[in-house]
Amino acid sequence: MLALDQAIKTRWNALSLTSGIPGGIWDSQIPEATWTANNQPMYCSFENVTDSKFRQTQSSRYQRMQVKFTVWGTDKVSVATACETIQDSFNNSNRANTSQLAVPQPDGIVSFMLTTPYTMAQISDTVWSGSQIFTATVRRQPELNPA
What are the tens digits of pLDDT across the range 101-123? Predict the structure, then answer.
């Protein structure tokens, strides 16, 4: 969902997370040449990994999706610290009327909750990654004539 992707990037920039993760945030993956050419020690990627069917009530329609954040870096401790920062910055980003992670109305994020805390993996001799998954519940326009 494009609006959710934009909301994630907006929150990232509002919290100045690039100061702790100098390579910034990328949708899916940073081009390898960009990472190595700029000699960035760390960056974050995110992607929508699942998407559920809509659930509808008389007044609203909801969709749940899972978003995976992965921090890539050359230092295990720095990657773990960045994962904890992301966890603290995005978890409990609910209540669309007060959240910085708000999708423009009529759609809106109902909740953005941590589903799976980060796990670390050593990708190569010099690269570490830390991944975590959040579940976003998004309010959508109700269908006028549901099938």
Answer: 655 555 677 778 889 999 999 99
CATH class belonging to 2-140: alpha beta
Domain ranges of the chain: 2-140
CA angle in degrees (0–180, nearest 5) for 111-117-118: 125
d(CA 111, CA 92): 7
The radius of gyration of the chain's CA atoms, rounded to the nearest angstrom, is 17
Average pLDDT of the segment spanning 129-138: 90
The model carries a pTM of: 0.80
